[in-house]
Amino acid sequence: MSVGNFYFCIFIMVRLSKHSIRKKLLSERSKLSPEIILENSKKITESLLKLDIYQQSTNIMLYIATPSEVQTEEIIKTAQKDRKKVFVPLIIRRDQPMLPSLLNDFEKELSTGYLGILQPRKEFFRIYPPSILNLIIVPGVAFTLQGHRLGRGGGYYDRFLSQLKKDTISVALAFEMQILAQIPHDQNDFPVDYIITEQRVIPIRSPLLKDEN
Ligand SMILES: Nc1ncnc2c1ncn2[C@@H]1O[C@H](COP(=O)(O)OP(=O)(O)OP(=O)(O)O)[C@@H](O)[C@H]1O
Ligand SMILES: [Mg+2]
Questions:
Q1: Hey, which of 102, 135, 202, 204 has its CA 20 to 30 A from 109?
Q2: Residue 151 dihedral angles phi and psi, to the nearest 5°
Q3: pTM recorded for the entire structure
Q4: Residues 31-67: pLDDT tens digits?
């Protein structure tokens, strides 16, 4: 087999195994009851709000959760009360990158967008450069203790995280059942700096050390 064919086979194997892990985890996570999701999301919210990296950040990007993800509504509303600027992901076209849009009112500005996820309605698009962010709160399907992340398969977060300034901190929110020993990954998969679950805060890498990893 040529070197080119060998790498192509590895690429296909990574794609297929990501696909099956994603399917399995999404199916398991969909079995969590709304009560457990709410209870664990509350614990995760409390842990995040206590961290210095939250308290010291003025510009925070947060995902808007679907029903089976770690919920973020309380974090968004608390951050706005704490006078922080909250940005949410905006996908205008499927083939274009995700953008941060400033959100002022959680109740009034959102409607269902791409992939059934809430995002700002057109009249509330307020797009800023990703370099403005101090902190980004990231969703995911599965994670490892090394910070590897499996998302929904669009590559949107991988592309977005790779454009951020080196000192922007990324924090993933996950239920403990989403932490796996290993996830197939390639050079485009962008790791996160912290993971918070209902049981623990997992620091993975200091932003100052990012270049060394
Ligand atoms: N920085 C990048 N540049 C070009 N292609 C990329 C980049 N990051 C990811 N991709 C491509 O996007 C596709 C989906 O990637 P992957 O399966 O890792 O998605 P994911 O991490 O699960 O999704 P997401 O980041 O949206 O949560 C792959 O074909 C991958 O090669
Ligand atoms: Mg990826």
A1: 135
A2: -100, -155
A3: 0.92
A4: 999 999 999 999 999 999 999 999 999 999 999 999 9
Rg (CA), the chain: 17
Task: State which ligand 1 atom lies nearest to the alpha carbon of 162.
Answer: 1
Residue 96: the pLDDT is 93
What are the tens digits of pLDDT across the range 79-89? 999 999 999 99
Q: Is 153 in the pocket of ligand 1 (CB under 6 A)?
A: yes
Instruction: Tell me how far apart the alpha carbons of residues 59 and 140 are, in angstroms, rounded to a whole number.
Output: 21
For residue 173, the CA-to-ligand 1 centroid distance in Å is 19
Q: Which domains does the chain have, with CATH numbers?
A: 3-212 (3.40.50.10420)
In this structure, the dihedral spanned by the alpha carbons of residues 67, 34, 177 and 26, taken in order and rounded to 10 degrees, is -40
Instruction: Please give the distance, rounded to the nearest whole angstrom, from the Cα atom of residue 18 to the centre of ligand 2.
Output: 9
